[in-house]
Amino acid sequence: MLQLPHTTGCLVCGRENPHGLKLDLHVDPDTGIVRADFTPTEHHAGFERIVHGGMIATVLDEAMVWAATWKIRRFCLCGELIIRFRQGATPGQLLKIAAIVETSRPRLVETAAKLFDASGKLLVTAQGKYVPVTPEQHQAVTTTFTTDPETEKAAAYLRGSAT
Questions:
Q1: Model confidence, pTM
Q2: Which end of the chain is more exposed for a tag (fewer CB within 10 A), N or C?
Q3: pLDDT in the model for residue 161
Q4: CA 20-147-73 angle, 5° bins
Q5: Mean of pLDDT over the chain
């Protein structure tokens, strides 16, 4: 598994965003599956002791956009996001995320993701459609990656400089 790069201000992975989740996302370079662990806090609740659905959608979107980006080596934007909540999640509960590309065409990447509790029980499923940015926009994003030895191999791959 390779750790995916971070940008400073990202809501999900950014280390310098004071409101961010600071998640580490990893990709299996052979399968393209993106994984992350997330332990929501009380600040992520909607109703009392239930994690807000928007927060769950955010982390699933992040995993799926990275799966799409890894597959085509170009950053993508979310065009459509479908979430199915099967059961609520509780703050303080370890959640496990997995995302994969289902189909890829030059102008559209379709993904799927699942969110499980620590015991492996399926809580949420998602599907997404992602649209690649221009090559120039992609290169601009790659210049914002933070310098980190843990993420350098994945960053080099996404920049097109991996060997």
A1: 0.94
A2: C
A3: 67
A4: 85
A5: 94
